[in-house]
Specification:
The complex is a heterodimer of chains A (750) and B (352). Chain A is 24% helix and 25% strand. Chain A has 750 residues and is α+β, with helices and mostly antiparallel strands. In chain B, strands 4-5-10-6-7 form a 5-stranded antiparallel sheet. In chain B, strands 11-12-13-14 form a 4-stranded antiparallel sheet. Chain B has a 3-stranded parallel sheet with strand order 1-3-2, with helices on one face. The N and C termini of chain B lie far apart (45 Å). Classes of the chains: A alpha+beta (750), B alpha+beta (352).
Chain lengths: 750, 352
């Protein structure tokens, strides 16, 4: 795409900094320990809060031994539903689109295992921890409802956040009739618990009715305002600081009960309070990915083209709130079919409420769809890549709209070439390596929407030719501090090292949500616009100033390059920013900008990132241990701001997909409802040895429509496609189609 | 965790005196005890730190040719000791297949023997567990039993012993040296971990105050060095407990097996010495059919303790493979993925 974006009165170029594989700016701080995460804050007079976790999944707390806990040396206060100070906001009310019902000791009920049932505040972490243990809760227990067969199935109100529950296009009945063959694929996916390296933590300190809150958060201003509701203060009274996050993955946007209780304790005790969840506490009150039970029915004609695509999913949610993993929605926008029908049901279980976990809906849905496509390819006697190409959709299957851009064909071609797909035999179980291991190759298609949210930014040019830009953006490890700074520098026509980049607190202009793979596009868009606004003002000064070499150049325009404004039609006429400002007698010049999308764009275009993932697995022919020996993904996501970070995001996503395919699973005891693997020894995620070769290719894609920057997202894309590719490779190696994720050794044993 | 006294004795006798008090626990690498304390499973009133005791961190050859390993030798140090690894390659392989590099650097020989089961019901104070509280019952039965015992279990306890290290040790007739208030005592490793019976959940044969001081491998054990393997089947390539594992060691006499030593891991509450299988192999020719018969014999009497019948089948397959690998000879170099089914041929990169 053109690397110059036209802006009124002044041109700024995207491409001097953006597009470069700049090294992570916060990398050294992170690896040396200089980066302060929330729990690293230790204000004077700090108290430590630890909550007691429910040992049952359903019922009520009948007794807490508060006296013993209170008597433990170092314990300062014990909060239970009996003495918990009032909150201005009912934690059971859905007062915001992103408000989850949460537990802040509003009553003695227990609705899932590991729910907070009391908070102990003490002078030391050890005292608080032991105080919580000494509470020795006794319960009135009711039978837990856990597992697909034990929960109540119901018609949900929405999928994800506000998504539709059902969708249909075309005549499914006619599509079924037109099919020469039909396949029906059943896929179960388990509950998964996001476990960021940094568990949830908060340090709360009040000064009158002003609150400073150090807390990892993916949506600073939104969360700030939600916190404020609980305490009846204006949002501006809260300074939420989140300079570094050790991962978020969707679990760190929303205020949760433990935070609210810690803030409350800090106010009541008039001392700063820290709460940091233990690893086992990450399995409960901070969200998870709901399990799904999916059925995908595909009808195909004699040419291997889909005639009907039906994707139904039942997704687990809690007994008291709703978040439905919209798995069926993954079938709306990918493969061409004259008839598409999807529907969701919910099943209520005694767990915490699920929430957005990296590619919510897309990850589970893609797994089932890609397995189904593989099975249909097999039935049609076609190579699975060829089958996908025969069902390539030139326009959005759901809406019929054109894609703003879609380089998926190139992804298939480049990925297949790099992987060596062409030599793949059609029959399963026919490839062996030099050690006698079964070898299988599988493919899956990646698809993720390119949404935008709302963001604000400012850009201030200073008299010395440097600049400060600010947006309340969030670096949760994805590299926003680097990629956003690159965009901001281009917006100002400055080298990155001359731009001070401020982000990570609610004091800056609202940077929106770091989620939905839309942060770079949205906050980046705001930063670029803010810089452009400053340059526009600077250009006006120069072109109207008879003493400037650029006087009168306004008609042809000026370009901002490397700290100078240049006449667009005459390179010999240029002036440094500092000279323009000095003559104008200005010490600084501030621009502002917004990021967001004109709704009319969405009416015209379907906007998605695409990719193709190729997987090689090896399976021991007798012992059935599985190893993913190669993953090659090729992805098209519009303009890539920083190829190094984008590749890191994409390979991370592919490894996340590997984790879904082979490892991750929250296992509950069906009788007690308690998790039996709530730690990193039991809850498997891949180790390095599980992912020996993971490669992400970036495919060029110009998108003149998606947004000003031409940027889509890469945060979640890599997960989609990968799960199915691996399962399909396992089939290709063994001839066994496993219907339940993760794939265990015992499922292949025969 | 509870408040506790922390003492760091200067001598073994001081340690034993401190450790003999009710509620005392010895702390070595801490890779298991501290987890148990954090989980609220162990609540020692006194933690006796034995990491600085002198003389417990040596690997030495005794006059009778046996090898003596001090209880405080770290797992990684033992596995990387060239002489030890050459004499007992399957032990080294087992050590390197366990846990992670960081844990192996901390974990000790004595602590490895003393580690508790990873049965999730043992770790969950809200579940009934006879191992945690005698007579409480066993919530594992009828629960999540994918990885529980298939040999030697009773209704009292269906847990497994998690160690990799102990599996080849049991096969090689290792002896545990202990010292306590009543003096020193030797126990064969194969008897050190006691199986559950109708009333007792079993556990380590260690009396109050007793401390493991060393582990001895008899001189004869080195005779298996040329044909020794440990194979560990797991659901993740590294950093995972075994689904099942096997140590297979053969002393060859030309093309005949002169003597076989075999043990299975993760199938019972102790490393499971498979004597019947050994007898079947002694004097036999190493071929697939013989190995298959040996595997059948090793699992004789196995029965699922829940949803884990697959472990019986897998244990036979793993043992058969381990025997096949042992017969092919110990690799010249430690495989890059020790004990893994994906251990590549000698010298090749594990990350091809």
């Amino acid at each position: 795409m053109p690397d110059t974006i036209l802006m009124p009165a002044g041109h700024v170029r995207l491409g001097s900094n953006a597009g470069q594989p700049m090294t992570r700016r916060d990398g050294i701080a992170k690896v040396t320990g200089a980066a302060t995460y929330a729990a690293d804050n230790r204000p004077d007079r700090l108290l430590y809060a630890v909550y007691a976790s429910a040992g049952i999944a359903r019922g009520r707390v009948a007794k807490l031994d508060v006296d013993t806990a209170r008597a433990h040396p170092g314990v300062v206060e014990v909060y239970t539903p009996e003495n918990r100070p009032a909150l201005e906001q009912d934690p059971d009310e859905k007062f915001h689109m992103f408000a989850w019902r949460t537990e802040a000791l509003q009553n003695d009920s227990v609705r899932y295992a590991n729910q907070p049932v009391a908070l102990v505040v003490a002078e030391t972490l050890e005292a608080a921890t032991e105080g919580a243990r000494l509470l020795s809760p006794e319960y009135e227990e009711q039978p837990a409802r856990i597992g697909f067969d034990n929960g109540e199935i119901y018609e949900p109100g929405s999928t994800g956040i506000g998504g539709a529950v059902t969708f249909s296009k075309g005549d499914i009945e006619a599509g079924r009739k037109a099919a020469v063959r039909t396949t029906e694929t059943h896929i179960d996916t388990p509950l998964q618990y996001h476990n960021a390296m940094e568990p949830h933590a908060a340090v709360a300190e009040w000064d009158g009715d002003l609150l400073t809150l150090d807390c990892p958060n993916q949506a600073l201003v939104m969360a700030r305002d939600m916190f404020a509701k609980y305490f009846g203060i204006p949002g501006e009274n809260i300074t939420l600081r989140s300079p570094y996050l050790g991962g978020g993955f969707g679990s760190k946007a929303i205020p949760i009960g433990p935070y609210i209780l810690a803030i409350l304790a800090a106010r009541e005790l008039d001392r700063p309070v820290k709460i940091a969840l233990r690893r086992d506490q990450m399995f409960g009150p901070v969200g998870h990915r709901g399990g799904t039970r999916q059925v995908v029915k595909l009808g195909t004609n004699a040419d291997g083209q889909l005639t009907a695509l039906e994707h139904n999913a039942t997704s687990t949610t809690s007994s008291f709130d709703e978040f439905i993993e919209g798995a069926g929605n993954a079938s709306h926008n990918l493969y061409a079919s004259p008839a598409i029908s999807t529907a969701h049901k919910g099943v209520r279980m005694d767990t915490g409420t699920p929430g957005p976990m990296r590619a919510p809906g897309e990850a589970s849905g893609s797994a089932a769809l890609e397995c189904a496509m593989d099975e249909a390819a097999e039935a049609a006697g076609l190579d699975p890549l060829e089958f996908r190409l025969r069902n390539y959709s030139e326009t959005d299957p759901a809406s019929g709209k054109p894609f703003s851009s879609k380089a998926l064909r190139e992804c298939y071609a480049e990925g297949a070439k790099r992987f060596g797909w062409a030599t793949r035999p059609l029959e399963p179980g026919t490839m062996r390596d030099e050690n006698g291991h079964l070898v299988g190759w599988g493919v899956g298609t990646s698809l993720f929407p390119a949404p935008m949210f709302q963001a604000l930014a400012t850009a201030t040019l200073r008299a010395d030719g440097t600049a400060t830009v600010a947006t309340g953006g969030v670096d949760m490890g994805q590299g926003a501090w680097t990629a956003l700074a690159q965009i901001a520098a281009d917006g100002l026509g400055l080298p990155a090292e001359r731009v001070e980049f401020l982000a990570g607190t609610s004091l800056q202009p609202d940077g929106g949500v770091a989620g939905g793979s839309g942060h770079t596009a949205t906050a980046g868009g705001a930063l670029f616009a803010a810089g452009s606004d400053a340059i526009r003002q600077l250009a006006e000064l120069a072109t109207n100033d008879p003493d400037s070499p650029l006087f009168g150049a306004g008609n042809a325009g000026v370009e901002a390059r490397d700290g100078r404004l240049c006449a667009a039609d005459d390179d010999s006429r240029s002036e440094a920013y500092e000279d323009i400002l000095a003559r104008a007698g200005l010490t600084a010049l501030e621009g502002s900008g917004t990021g967001g999308r004109d709704p009319s764009i969405g009416e015209q275009w379907a906007m998605f990132s695409h990719g193709a993932v190729f997987a090689e697995v090896k399976v021991d022919p007798e012992l059935y241990q599985i190893r993913v020996t190669r993953l090659v993904g090729a992805f098209a996501a519009g303009r890539i701001i920083n190829p190094k970070l984008a590749q890191s995001q994409l390979t991370g996503g592919m490894i996340w997909g590997l984790s879904s395919a082979l490892h991750e699973e929250g296992i509950h005891d069906l009788r007690s409802g308690r998790l039996v693997n709530g730690d990193f020894a039991g809850y498997h995620i891949p180790v390095n040895a599980d992912a020996p070769s993971v490669e992400a290719l970036l495919i060029d894609e110009e998108d003149p429509y998606v947004n000003t920057l031409g940027v889509k997202g890469v945060g979640e894309l890599g997960i989609t496609g990968t799960v199915g590719a691996i399962a399909n490779a396992v089939w290709h190696a063994t001839g066994t189609r496993v219907r339940s994720f993760p794939i265990h050794i015992s499922a292949l044993l025969k | 965790m509870n408040l506790f006294d922390y003492v760091r004795p200067a001598s073994l006798s001081e340690a034993i005196a401190a450790g003999s008090k009710p509620g005392a626990a010895y702390l070595a690498g801490g890779t298991n005890l501290l987890d148990l304390m954090k989980a609220g499973v162990a609540h020692p009133g006194k933690v006796v730190d034995i990491t600085r005791l002198p003389g417990l961190d040596r690997i030495e050859t005794l006059s009778d040719g046996s090898t003596r390993i001090g209880a405080m030798v770290r797992n990684s140090d033992l596995a990387r000791d060239p002489s030890f690894a050459a004499s007992f390659p399957a032990v080294a392989e087992a050590l390197l297949s366990g846990a992670s590099a960081q844990l192996r650097n901390a974990a000790t020989v004595g602590g490895n023997l003393m580690q508790r089961t990873r049965c999730p019901y043992f770790y969950d104070p809200n579940s009934a567990c006879n191992r945690r509280e005698s007579g409480a019952g066993c919530d594992a039965i009828g629960g999540e039993t994918h990885s529980h015992a298939v040999l030697g279990w009773t209704e009292t306890c269906i847990a497994t012993h998690p160690s990799d290290f102990c599996v080849p040790l049991a096969a090689l007739d290792a002896v545990v040296e202990m010292e306590g208030p009543d003096g020193t005592r030797d126990v064969p490793l194969a008897d050190f971990h006691m199986l559950p019976d109708e009333t007792s959940p079993g556990g380590a044969d260690l009396k109050p105050g007793e401390i493991i001081t060393a582990l001895r491998l008899p001189a004869e054990a080195a005779a298996f060095a040329g044909n020794s393997r440990y194979l560990k089947l797991r659901e993740r390539t590294s950093y995972a407990f075994a689904l099942v594992s096997a140590a297979a060691m053969l002393r060859m006499d030309g093309d005949t097996i002169a003597e076989a030593h075999i043990a299975l891991g993760a199938v019972a509450a102790k490393p499971w010495r498979a004597s019947a299988a050994e007898e079947l192999l002694n004097g036999a020719t190493p071929d697939a059919e013989t190995f298959a018969r040996a595997a059948e014999a090793a699992l004789d009497g196995a029965r699922p303790s829940g949803d884990n019948a697959h472990k019986i089948d897998l244990a036979k397959r793993v043992l058969t493979r381990a025997l096949t690998q042992a017969a092919a000879g110990t690799p010249d170099r430690m495989p890059a993925l020790p004990a893994s089914v994906f251990a590549s041929v000698n010298g090749a990169s594990a990350h091809a």
